[in-house]
Amino acid sequence: MLNLPVLVFDIETIPDVRSGSRLYGLDLPDDDTVLAMNNIRRQESNSDFPRLPLHEIVCISGIWVEEGQIRLFSFCQESMSEQEIIKRFLSVFDKHFPTLVSWNGSAFDLPVLILRAMHYGLSAQGLLDQGDFNQARRYDNYQNRYQHRHTDLMDCLALFNARNFQRLDELALFLGFPGKQGHSGYHVHDYVKNQDWKVLCQYCESDVINTWLIYLRWQLLRGHLSLDEHQHWIKFTHDYIAEQLPGQHEFLSSWQHNAKLTPFNPRC
């Protein structure tokens, strides 16, 4: 059985132009600042992927799952500031103690969330409590690698060996799921610049749904779900998308098509 409630999440980011300008002493238009930050970063690491503190969060999407209920949500800068997005997301952990599921969340999503929360002077007590406020969290918390309160699927499936890391999109397709819908994460900056908030949210949400489906397969592999229980959650997810998420019908069609091409094809 699943340890409910489950919260599967993903963040999307763009370079933090203001902080980058201050850190690197730049006085340029925003687009030129991004190019300069990319060039500086490539000199440091052979990659233009910004340092973790210099990721501005523009969207957080998640799936909240409990018995008899599944809900997909997104907080984005269309209607909220970055500070409000982070504060609202962190407030979940002050009220609830969900099983947290991510893809590369240990190395990216959670550290970025924590650093950006510090940037705004926010509290993440519920997320970071290791028994200081609630003794039950001493050995059951989101920082302890040797339990599954936070399951970083990329880490788990690689057996915590970086040489075995897989890309979410490729593994999702391998397992018969839709994979990413739309462009890669490199286009997030364009989505924000062009105010394509609907496209941005759907992109982030598709990553979350793929992660949730991989998590179900992982729990089946571990013996935490029987085949019947796995089938129940697959059908429950499929029906929710079909009935409640008209913006994800392309995702649903891709799922139905890809599932037929794999040896394990649960009824969806």
TrEMBL record:
What SUPFAM superfamilies does UniProt report for this protein, alphabetically? Ribonuclease H-like (SSF53098)
CDD domains reported in the protein's UniProt record: DNA_polB_like1_exo
> What InterPro entries would the database entry show?
3'-5'_exonuclease_PolB-like, RNaseH-like_sf, RNaseH_sf
Give the molecular function GO annotations.
Answer: exonuclease activity; nucleic acid binding
Q: Which UniProt keywords apply?
A: Exonuclease, Hydrolase, Nuclease
Source organism, top-level taxon: Bacteria
* Residues covered by the Predicted 3'-5' exonuclease PolB-like domain: 47-254
Instruction: Please report the name of this protein according to its UniProt entry.
Output: 3'-5' exonuclease
Organism annotation: Alkanindiges hydrocarboniclasticus
